[in-house]
Design a protein that fits this description.
Number of helices: 4
Order of helices and strands: HEHHEEH
CATH superfamily: Winged helix-like DNA-binding domain superfamily/Winged helix DNA-binding domain
CATH architecture: Orthogonal Bundle
Strand order of the largest sheet: 1-3-2
Structural class: alpha+beta
Oligomer: single chain
Radius of gyration: 22 Å
CATH topology: Arc Repressor Mutant, subunit A
Shape: elongated
Length: about 120
Amino acid sequence: MDTPLREPTFLILTALAAAPMHGYGLIGEVAALSDGRVSLRPGTLYGALDRLVDAGLVDVDREEIVDGRLRRYYRLAPRGEATLSAETDRLRRNVEAATARLRSRAAAPRAATPRLAGGPA
């Protein structure tokens, strides 16, 4: 995948990197991974999962009946693992660049702010 992943997609793939999960398990795991910043609704999640399956990033692992309802489990596909790994490397490089810039900024002496003529002293 050449374009950066959207955060919800990144978090779904990250959750599935640990183990296969069903939809509601993914909703909880994404919320936990994001410290509650990303809250997926079922319709949003299942639409995303359909797209990820179609793209070959996620596979259906298995299905089971629980309390009379179908529960589908998803797993990270090999292509999804490669995509997640590449995106993690991209994000890491960005963080390293930003961290280096912030460190150099903190270490550099601050130039005095020039005063404008005619302004308060």
